[in-house]
Write the structure tokens for this entry.
Amino acid sequence: MTRPPEVDTPTARFEANRARLTGLAYRMLGELHEAQDVVQDAWLRWSRHDQEVLDPEAWLTRVVVNLCRTRLTTLRDGRTDYVGPWLPEPVPTGPGGVDLGPVETAMERETLSLGMLRLLELLSPAERAVFVLHEAFGHPHAVVAELLDLTEPAVRQHLHRARGRVGTGRRRFEADPERAARLTARFLQAAGGQDIDALERLLADDAVALSDGGGVASAARRPVEGRTRVARFSAGLARGATAVTVGVEEVNGGVGVVVRDAERVVVVMAAEFDADTGDLVRLLSVLNPAKIQRWAPPTP
């Protein structure tokens, strides 16, 4: 007879929290491999203290957030010398992808999006921790205060500032997955059709395209701004994509575009749309091989 697995061992208690902790660390850092390193560090600490912990979820959350706040400062120092625009590491979250915890609500999905993660770079580590814990994981102010060793008024102040900075850049974001998929497919069809006028009609006046090549892959080193320039830029990308496959897939809990050649993924993109008009507002393209190497090759 096969012995049933232990369900209340220290390892089992940690594993029950792993996806949530990874999603928390990823939202704090914007890089999955860094988030996984933090979770591994948390596991090492847990393995030394698990017998004395009464509330594993709270204890592990506090450890991961504190590790992330320290690591985020170091990461940001490195990002100041980054070649071209820095964008977060995109993560495959569809079937067979990476489990980053719950993505059932619009806010849970939005706080995973590349656009939101880019905006979270505007926040201090403390503001980012408060925002992620409250907005992405739904912790009340009192719980956030306890986790971060802050007073409730300080938590409310951090959250107010964070919402203000993030909200300015997200007020037009289209978060509905089904509509976003339709708008993305429409944009791809227009870009591939090489009709610049038709493509321009799908873009907002202040549309922006950001490309992250990290100084390794060929990419625009400055933002491409304005409807006409973004239309021409997008059409140019489509002209150069004749030998690749383009698929609409789940990226960071939302709708993304994955471009593959015969052997590898060459770019992962996310398009953001105006919630009222459906116009494309921002196109984010990650080409840095170090950030897209975990994506699976094309299916034979």
